[in-house]
């Protein structure tokens, strides 16, 4: 997709390759070559720049500058590129727009292109794909420092592992103060953890295809949802492009508090073209359109909710996050207590149903009650098993069977759950069902020696002549 080719250029727009190419580097330009370069730039802007009216104004402006001799003062190629970039930005005010030097990809030997991709992937691995710090601060505040939001298959695993590590935090801080951008798919993937249902977070209009792409949070996530977790995002004047989208999307959806400085203000994704030899131009070809605000952060940056100097942002956010996390924990504990009481009420009601000999109704209620308890993180397989043994010890055999049946229903691949159910059936005198459950346990775990021994004993009791 086009958005994966976004150019993250940036203050000087200089991109250098670690692979050596045989292409000759441009150091000087004649006036004729500069005039030809201006013509090429005008043609590229007219065809690709996302705002046609601004492209026309830029074209008029740099043609006038060329005619006035503004580019004749130096023959140095870099000085010309910098001068032309300044003139273009004086009209567009777009920081993704500018000239830089880099090899013509169409002239690279095939083996160089392959090697460059390998080296680039290795460099991303060395930097852990931009995620270089993750920890839990005092007050159970999770922290992630993200230096790039470039997206790939490898990034998915890194993000999912990070979310698993931080899933028990009571608040979370994302530090993107030094992040220069990346890909909107990164946010769509990560933000799936922070919204209860699929949520539209961004749109990008592509002029060259006259098409608008939508970016929705992904579903499902391979971990716990954190849709009510307090979030804080640290930004600075250096935060740029896709990193700004990270903060802007969450702020627009009122899902995070933004802390730090007004960001750089580059919203329009770009691609690059050759101008002359190794002189290239980055041109914004798309426009971000936030579904909440109807606009974006181009030229104005993301305005923080709490404005502080960049080097003080983490301290400020930690204080805010600790307070928000404490309230979140109180709410969470209160909710758990309420859910626990509902669970116990369901269990007690089931006991009453058994007392009225409504066994099937009791088993159905136990199963639904314990399923809800697992969903609400009150019970696990092990704790349901313990509950079953509580009833077994109290000689409440029908309740014990009901609880163990609920456990095997919830965890059908658990040998231990079937082993426990078999024990309850045996205690209740239901030998055939006990044999069936022990056999199921052994099928799931052939090394379950307890099940094997109990099965032999039970079979001898049921068929004394069978050895």
Descriptive terms for the model:
467 residues; three-stranded antiparallel sheet; 2-enoyl-CoA Hydratase, Chain A, domain 1; disordered N terminus; Serine Threonine Protein Phosphatase 5, Tetratricopeptide repeat; six-stranded mixed sheet; elongated; alpha/beta
Description:
The protein is of the alpha/beta class. It folds into three domains: 106 residues, no CATH class; 186 residues, Alpha-Beta Complex (2-enoyl-CoA Hydratase, Chain A, domain 1); 136 residues, Tetratricopeptide repeat domain (Serine Threonine Protein Phosphatase 5, Tetratricopeptide repeat), CATH 1.25.40.10. Helix content is 49%, strand content 13%. The chain is built from 14 helices and twelve strands. Strands 2-3-4-7-8-12 form a six-stranded mixed β-sheet, sandwiched between helices. The chain has a three-stranded antiparallel β-sheet with strand order 1-10-9. The longest helix is centred in the last third of the chain and has 43 residues. The N terminus is likely disordered.
